[in-house]
């Protein structure tokens, strides 16, 4: 599963379309992959929808900022550019993104709970 959300204050439309198409093809192909791996159970969790909902409805999730990350300027820095020497925002949980591309801990907490609920739902089936 893949997702690419925001860069430089704007959604990257083609990459988002590519992610949706890839995820659709992956979900369709998973039963064949699972059948080829004896004894395995593969579960698909759609995180693209929840991430887009967070961007479109930030207040629903307690976010005040969805267009830039908490690290540095929030527009350019990513991965190793966010380090001990990089300034961060004072209220991390207000931001949907930690850096210019990676979700924040608050976003991952929501996604973890979302995926956990899906897994528990599948376990009941």
Automatic annotation (TrEMBL):
It holds the Pfam family Lipase_GDSL. GO terms for molecular function: hydrolase activity, acting on ester bonds. Belongs to the 'GDSL' lipolytic enzyme family. This is SGNH hydrolase-type esterase domain-containing protein. It comes from Microthlaspi erraticum. The lineage of its organism: Eukaryota, Viridiplantae, Streptophyta, Embryophyta, Tracheophyta.
């Amino acid at each position: 599963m893949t997702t690419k959300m925001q860069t430089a204050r704007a959604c990257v439309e083609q990459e988002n379309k590519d992610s949706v198409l890839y995820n659709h093809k992956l979900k369709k192909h998973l039963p064949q992959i699972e059948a080829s791996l004896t004894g395995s159970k593969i579960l698909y969790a759609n995180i693209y929808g929840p991430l887009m909902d967070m961007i479109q409805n930030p207040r629903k999730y307690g976010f005040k900022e969805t267009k830039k990350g908490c690290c540095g300027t929030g527009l350019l820095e990513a991965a190793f550019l966010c380090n001990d020497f990089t300034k961060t925002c004072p209220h991390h949980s207000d931001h949907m993104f930690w850096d210019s591309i990676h979700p924040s801990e608050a976003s991952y907490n929501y996604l973890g709970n979302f995926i956990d609920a899906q897994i528990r739902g599948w376990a009941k089936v």
